[in-house]
Recover the amino acids of this structure.
């Protein structure tokens, strides 16, 4: 009986802007791979054409990664090597791909990392902040309530340094939120990292806002926000938090309204730190308790 030989799954980092950052090893892996699983085949084809690589390119987009995982696993079991790439940077860092990696690990298939560019690590490396510990949060939340929850966790956390991704359309809104909340911190906001016109905006939130406005067309290019909280802004002990049920009951009594209206009013309160889903779940619990 011959031993079955599986292919290998390579997680290959690609440039985040400057194509010359592609490693020689990464080029070799992509050249030799039987299949390249890409987040967006159209964008990945641009890089592969520059590298003169002609391989079978298959989409691994998040909307179909569950179904595609089965296909890729069957190909790996057939002995084919697969390289996973993303639009830019290191795969699976705020990008699809984890479903495939988990499935490969469960099947006993070798998963090999091919390191390279990562926007979060690049921004951290040039921030000048304390990097003895740091926390990557992915994309900055959109809703104010979710942002306040994250901010509270940051102030209670074990580290002062955090890194977020943000889109160009929401960067000013994110900075203005920090200003409105009175966040005492230093920022290192990186735009278009490694590209020809990359820029870095440093200072307190108010200073960064002024620098963005001075740039003019700040709503273009991807952003990475590195934030270092002031030492005296951190919570020294865990503060008591009112339950969402208590907030809803209080609002219902004050405004003589139903739970549905109370949820809307609580969400509109700038001091609220609960999300819409949490408040809705709390209203269901109140209904179960009191009918």
């Amino acid at each position: 009986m011959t031993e079955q030989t599986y292919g290998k799954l390579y997680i290959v980092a690609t440039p985040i802007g400057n194509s010359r950052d592609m490693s020689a090893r990464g080029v070799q892996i992509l050249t030799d791979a039987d299949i390249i699983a890409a987040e967006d085949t159209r964008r990945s084809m641009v890089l592969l054409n520059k590298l003169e690589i002609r391989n079978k390119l298959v989409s691994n987009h998040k909307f179909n990664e569950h179904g595609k995982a089965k296909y890729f696993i069957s190909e790996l079991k057939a002995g084919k090597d697969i390289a996973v790439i993303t639009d830019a940077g290191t795969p699976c860092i705020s990008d699809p791909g984890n479903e495939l990696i988990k499935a490969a690990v469960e099947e006993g298939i070798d998963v090999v990392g091919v390191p390279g560019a990562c926007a979060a690590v690049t921004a951290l490396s040039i921030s000048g902040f304390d990097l003895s510990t740091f926390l990557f949060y992915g994309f900055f939340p959109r809703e104010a309530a979710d942002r306040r929850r994250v901010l509270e966790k940051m102030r209670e956390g074990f580290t002062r340094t955090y890194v977020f991704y943000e889109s160009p359309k929401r960067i000013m809104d994110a900075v203005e939120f920090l200003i409105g909340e009175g966040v005492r911190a230093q920022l290192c906001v990186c735009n278009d990292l490694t590209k020809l016109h990359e820029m870095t905006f440093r200072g307190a939130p108010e200073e960064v806002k002024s620098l963005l406005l001075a740039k003019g067309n700040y709503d273009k290019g991807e952003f990475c926000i590195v934030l270092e909280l002031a030492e005296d802004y951190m919570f020294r002990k865990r503060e008591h938090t009112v339950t969402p049920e208590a907030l809803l009951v209080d609002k219902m009594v004050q405004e003589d309204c139903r739970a549905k209206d109370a949820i809307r009013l609580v969400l509109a309160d700038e001091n609220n730190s609960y999300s819409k889903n949490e408040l809705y779940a709390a209203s269901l619990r109140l209904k179960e308790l009191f009918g």
